[in-house]
Give the backbone structure.
Amino acid sequence: MSQLKQKLGKEGEEIAVAHLISKGYKILARNYRSGRAEIDIIATVDDWVVIVEVKTRETNKYGNPEDAIGRGKINMIAQGANDFLLDRDLNNNVRYDVISILKNKHHIDVHHIVDAFWPGLY
């Protein structure tokens, strides 16, 4: 991955964290890794553990950022979430959200998709 894409991705994660905090979420972990699985943000709100995948792009010329999340990525996220819950001995309800960000020098558009996917249904 190019350094520009990595920088854009990190900027997107910072924007997503700020967005979640402004909505009352508590951040539990960022860039959680377990095996090959990586989860961008793990947060809580009410009694939910929220697993958040962040996708950031400069343009939607080739589709919206969230369209880049395929079945394989969903399965990896679900495995990582399972490992996190077991590691922390958590028994909360779990939800999978996506924060889709379009960011360029003219504007930033943040779209928070609650309950974006349900692993195991694909």
